[in-house]
Amino acid sequence: MYNFIFQNTTKIYFGENQLQHLSEELKQYGNRILLTYGGGSIKKIGLYDKVMDELKKANFSVFELSGIEPNPRHTTVNKGADICKKENIDVLLAVGGGSTIDCTKAISAAAFYDGDSWDLVTHKVPVTKALPIVTILTLSATGSEMDSGAVISNIDTNEKLGLLHPLLQPKVSFLDPANTYSVNAFQTACGSVDILSHIFDCYYFTASKKMDMADRIMEEVIKTVIKYAPIAIKEPENYEARANLMWASSWALNDFLTTGVSQVPVCHAMEHELSAFYDITHGLGLAIITPRWMKYVLDETTAPQFKKFGVNIFGVDESLPDMQGAERAIECLSDFLFNTLGLQSTLTEIGIDDKNFKIMAKKACWGSVLPSLKPLGAQDIEEIFKMCL
Amino acid sequence: MYNFIFQNTTKIYFGENQLQHLSEELKQYGNRILLTYGGGSIKKIGLYDKVMDELKKANFSVFELSGIEPNPRHTTVNKGADICKKENIDVLLAVGGGSTIDCTKAISAAAFYDGDSWDLVTHKVPVTKALPIVTILTLSATGSEMDSGAVISNIDTNEKLGLLHPLLQPKVSFLDPANTYSVNAFQTACGSVDILSHIFDCYYFTASKKMDMADRIMEEVIKTVIKYAPIAIKEPENYEARANLMWASSWALNDFLTTGVSQVPVCHAMEHELSAFYDITHGLGLAIITPRWMKYVLDETTAPQFKKFGVNIFGVDESLPDMQGAERAIECLSDFLFNTLGLQSTLTEIGIDDKNFKIMAKKACWGSVLPSLKPLGAQDIEEIFKMCL
Fold first, then answer.
1. Which residues pair with A4 in a beta bridge?
2. What is the dotted CATH code of the domain comprising A185-387?
3. Is B3 in Cβ contact with A17 (below 8 Å)?
4. How far is A30 from chain B (nearest CA, A)?
């Protein structure tokens, strides 16, 4: 009970005007930088220019990889790795959200491998070395800025897989809430659901006994997101809301909350199949799946935990019987996701039918059973997908 | 607002039977170990033998420094540094509570300095290099197991001063709650007060605006201590209580809770004079001082914060006017400290009179003013000491 190993080495610069420290941090690793980013929103918000100004002042040699996709592809990882090899890159600077950072993490390892980067993602070959990574975060969601994981998609095989290695942990991350002011309502909502889901999936809803303090802290991070996501949606330039969401994003998945009971992230596993097959926004898929998963696994054994969630997070009446309290909790969560955050509530609404459910379900459970609050096999997962229609 | 830099690199092994990892961690740093400990309680509980077994199995050369005092002296630091130099020590292994770990941190730096270690503590010479430190914690209190600070006393000059440097951060700490089963009721109470005081002093009671999430998490750590300290006192071998207190100890002062508003730890500054002059247990001094400090700084501007503390931690009635709510909060805290934890409530009871108050007060405010919730000069501090009689 409670045994765990914890270490998180990432150095965080949190707040405004911290980019003055960018060059001193990068310089520790060398002079040749690969700057990575997505579709160009960092140019629109002026961040690209700010970063380039800092880099030029310090005379770095800067190379660029742009156009990293929302569900980053292994082919893009290959492109980045080629630049690293050809240009003798010393350090990677990822400017963007989780997709850009994840792609950059995979590049950092692929830079030392001569084959296809997909071999690393599928664990055909192990990660043995990686270039150092510095990140500048522009979206509060994945927690990638302060963890050692990356999720990469292979569009040819409809696969979306995780790569986890201590060498992928960013050395330094710059977290300026103002860099998320331009994130629109939909993406703010989806990012917030991703944060919540990391806590739900990895730590909060588990059959194992947790340390009380960790449990309480999880609930405060959940409450923080539930309080500030709607504020950030209504007032995109509310610094306090953006700051709380940003720090919540980093905390939700950086092992601070672990108490040795981390489990298979079951809703994430199901959602990865949705985005692998349909390239939808991760947080939206999670929003649609999560309450259905809750309903599916709800029984007498799991009801007390869902009720506790409802009581502590949404103020559900504690005197209700477990099952009723649990049902009320799931209603409250659904109301938050689909009314307060305004996300679409069914797969049908976003144009997904049951055509691929069987194969997706089989892939989601890795060919056997997902151990979770209640173990789920392929048939269970297919059932949950159907509930999402 | 909210700007901060955060990094905490210590690797934590939490839980039972983790010492199997001790040798692999130490080996990274070399073969010659200086084992440091206090008065021998680690022998009584069998921990010394367990550690030595692990070290012997791995063929380390082990040297020892025992007898580290509860308020560790610079003369002991000098002794340890001499052993390091003479025996070419590669790595320090501190087995004990905060005093042993603090002393070991100072030794780690003094090992590279040829003069008196007090020069480092007084910042006459800077810390430039330090031996790596691994710790095995036996008392939940100071947070030294996961931070970069140490407090060292000079008994000749009645000084107790802090030394803070990133190089002093332990590389690895082993946190086994079972190693605190033998901690008696008084020391458990004092350690718990120390944990609370770190949060009160450094983060929670401040005039600056904090990030909401950090504030909420602080309160959960406070609640954890208030819940589990009495349980650990009544049932010394309650694993859950010991585990929660131990992890709370590490969290209370390792910068996780910082939101860029950390201030001078004012109650700690006052208490350090008490233990410097009278060698009393740190947590006891803090317990006596804290409610008096609260009463002294209580006015219309500070009342809302103390009331909020009372409402959120002790369930004080929210509808009370600020001043009444604040007074009630201080009463609740006093009741917890002096009744629930059973600590002595006045300096008189522990044989301290006002003889040295003037000089202690002058030293406590570093010759000028302690910036805090309300700035305190020497006269204010003397007044607070008098309230403790």
1. B14
2. 1.20.1090.10
3. yes
4. 21
Task: Provide the token pair at A218.
Answer: 């999880």
Residue B296: in which H helix or E strand, if any? helix B282-297
Is there a contact between A109 and A165 (Cβ–Cβ < 8 Å)?
yes
Over residues A138-176, the pLDDT tens digits come to: 999 999 999 999 999 998 998 989 999 999 999 999 999
All structural domains of chain A with their residue ranges: 11-179, 185-387
Exposure of A61 in the CB half-sphere (CA atoms within 13 A): 10
Give the CATH class of A11-179. Answer: alpha beta
Q: Indicate whether A196 pLDDT > 60.
A: yes
Does B214 lie at the interface with A, CB-CB under 8 angstroms? Answer: yes
List, as ranges, residues 224-253 from A with C-beta within 8 Å of B: 224, 227-228, 239-240, 243-244, 247-248, 251
Contacts 24+ apart (CB under 8 A), B109-116: B109/B163, B109/B165, B109/B167, B109/B168, B110/B77, B110/B78, B110/B80, B110/B81, B110/B84, B111/B80, B111/B81, B111/B84, B111/B85, B113/B81, B116/B74, B116/B78
Q: How far apart are the first and last CA of chain A?
A: 39
Asked if pLDDT for residue A134 goes beyond 60, the answer is yes
Q: Reduced to 3 states, what is the DSSP secondary structure of residue B68?
A: coil
pLDDT over 90 percentage in chain A? 87
pLDDT tens, residue by residue, B198-245: 999 888 888 778 889 999 999 999 999 999 999 999 999 999 999 999
Taking contacts as CB-CB distances below 8 angstroms, the residues of chain A near B25 are: none
Q: What would the pLDDT profile of A231-281 be if each residue is shown by its tens digit?
A: 999 999 999 999 999 999 999 988 887 777 767 789 999 999 998 899 899
**pTM as predicted:** 0.95
Q: Which residues of B touch A217 (CB under 8 A)?
A: 217, 220-221
B1 in contact with A, Cβ within 8 Å: yes
Q: Kindly indicate whether the ipTM for this predicted assembly is greater than 0.95, answering yes or no.
A: no
Tokens of A78: 């290959």
Q: Phi/psi at B14 (nearest 5 deg)?
A: -110, 135
Contact B270, B312 (CB under 8 A): no
Residues in B touching A4 (Cβ below 8 Å):
12, 14-15
Which one of B24, B146, B216 would you mutate to disrupt binding with A, by most A Cβ within 10 Å of its Cβ? B216
In this complex, the residue of B1, B18, B220 whose CB is nearest that of residue A217 is B220
CATH for B184-387 (1.20.120.1200, 3.40.50.2300, 3.30.1230.20, 1.20.1090.10): 1.20.1090.10
